[in-house]
């Protein structure tokens, strides 16, 4: 009992002695293991760190040390391994706030803009002042200042220009405050105003907020606030951008696009070629090419719309992705017969699909046609065509293709270097 008591007292004495030798700076940063150990080394209380300590550091991956021949520690390098897990949403939000500090209002600009307004300014005069002001934060404070003035009420023009200024500056929190004011007044709003709100919400990635605005438009008793074809264009484009080239994700969003399209037709809004192309592109991205072809054949018969070059480009790319080269060639011939020129993505997809299917000669002729039309051939297309030509034993054609690619790269590099 007495031995245990003396051992305990000696350990307490060693701890107290060590704490008295640690500098105040090291004591403040004692939560950091690396700073604590470095301070211990500087104060000299660790005259001889045993090898077990270094082996412990090495085994835990906490640090690394260098030991002299006398067994004493010369230097200690302590480090913590970095985490490979993704940061949480709250951490990302804190990092974003730290990297993007809150903007500060320029009082001089604000007072100058306020002094330029007449005593009893109208909403149109306020809208002109906000339009001329380049600082979005000044615009926001000017809008709020005008709301507090007696005998003044905002109208569609002031709401619209404030939302456009804040949305273009990506000040979505401030823009949301203005939108809430719009939604709280029944007689305020029109189609252009709500379309701008939808556009900036979708640009910010706030799809749920955008859908709620769309529902407010459809339920509004004010006929000027009802959705038009431009409203559906904004929603179609935003939903198509959520797929991220993932067929499963595109399929999930495609259900929403199809429901919106059906609702648009039921409300008496005639679809145009942009809306139909959104359907075609959505079906292609979700690998439902037959549904895309169905919309394509219904364009002129049902909807009285003629397909454009984008329609053919989407279909050619989708058909090549499924290896249907015969249908893709027929679509390409029909496209050229109408005077359209395929884009680079369609040509590259067709050349790759033809080469992989074994039709190397057709792929080569399509490639040279692509070059004549001024489209850019990517590296994947050249690599696929050269490898398939070698597999078929056409080494001369492979050398020709490779030489063309090398000359093209050399020309680009010389152009970049100014030679």
TrEMBL record:
<feature type="repeat" description="PPR">
    <location>
        <begin position="308"/>
        <end position="342"/>
    </location>
</feature>
<dbReference type="InterPro" id="IPR011990">
    <property type="entry name" value="TPR-like_helical_dom_sf"/>
</dbReference>
<dbReference type="Pfam" id="PF01535">
    <property type="entry name" value="PPR"/>
</dbReference>
<feature type="repeat" description="PPR">
    <location>
        <begin position="378"/>
        <end position="413"/>
    </location>
</feature>
<keyword id="KW-0677">Repeat</keyword>
<dbReference type="Pfam" id="PF13812">
    <property type="entry name" value="PPR_3"/>
</dbReference>
<feature type="repeat" description="PPR">
    <location>
        <begin position="343"/>
        <end position="377"/>
    </location>
</feature>
<dbReference type="InterPro" id="IPR002885">
    <property type="entry name" value="PPR_rpt"/>
</dbReference>
<protein>
    <recommendedName>
        <fullName>Pentatricopeptide repeat-containing protein</fullName>
    </recommendedName>
</protein>
<dbReference type="Pfam" id="PF12854">
    <property type="entry name" value="PPR_1"/>
</dbReference>
<dbReference type="Pfam" id="PF13041">
    <property type="entry name" value="PPR_2"/>
</dbReference>
<comment type="similarity">
    <text>Belongs to the PPR family. P subfamily.</text>
</comment>
């Amino acid at each position: 009992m007495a031995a245990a008591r003396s051992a305990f007292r000696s350990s307490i004495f060693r701890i107290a002695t060590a704490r008295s030798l640690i500098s105040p700076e090291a004591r403040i940063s004692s939560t950091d293991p690396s700073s604590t150990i470095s301070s211990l080394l500087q104060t000299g209380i660790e005259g001889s760190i045993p090898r077990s300590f270094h082996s412990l550091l090495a085994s835990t991956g906490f640090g690394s040390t260098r030991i002299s021949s006398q067994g004493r520690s010369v230097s200690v390098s302590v480090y913590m391994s970095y985490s490979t897990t993704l940061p949480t949403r709250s951490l990302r939000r804190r990092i974003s706030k730290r990297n993007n500090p809150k903007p500060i209002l320029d009082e001089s600009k604000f007072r100058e803009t306020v002094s330029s307004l007449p005593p009893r300014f109208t909403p149109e005069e306020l809208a002109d002042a906000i339009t001329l002001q380049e600082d979005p934060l000044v615009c926001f404070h000017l809008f709020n200042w005008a709301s507090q003035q007696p005998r003044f009420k905002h109208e569609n023009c002031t709401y619209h220009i404030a939302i456009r200024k804040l949305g273009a500056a990506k000040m979505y929190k401030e823009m949301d405050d203005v939108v809430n004011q719009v939604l709280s007044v029944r007689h305020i709003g029109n189609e252009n105003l709500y379309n701008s709100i939808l556009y900036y919400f979708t640009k910010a990635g706030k799809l749920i907020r955008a859908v709620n605005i769309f529902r407010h438009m459809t339920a509004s008793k004010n006929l000027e606030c009802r959705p038009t074809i431009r409203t559906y264009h904004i929603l179609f484009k935003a939903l198509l951008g959520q797929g991220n080239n993932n067929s499963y994700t595109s399929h999930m969003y495609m259900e929403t696009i199809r429901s919106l399209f059906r609702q648009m037709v039921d409300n008496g809004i005639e679809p145009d070629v942009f809306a139909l192309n959104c359907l075609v592109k959505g079906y292609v991205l979700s690998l439902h090419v037959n549904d895309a072809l169905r919309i394509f054949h219904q364009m002129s018969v049902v909807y009285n719309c003629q397909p454009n070059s984008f329609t053919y480009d989407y279909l050619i790319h989708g058909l090549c992705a499924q290896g249907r080269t015969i249908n893709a060639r027929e679509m390409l011939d029909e496209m050229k017969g109408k005077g359209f020129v395929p884009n680079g993505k369609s040509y590259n997809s067709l050349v790759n699909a033809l080469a992989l299917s074994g039709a190397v000669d057709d792929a080569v002729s399509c490639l040279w046609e692509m070059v004549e039309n001024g489209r850019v051939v990517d590296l994947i297309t050249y690599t696929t065509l050269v490898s398939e030509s070698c597999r078929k034993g056409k080494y001369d054609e492979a050398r020709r293709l490779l030489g063309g690619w090398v000359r093209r790269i050399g020309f680009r590099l010389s152009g970049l270097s100014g030679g």
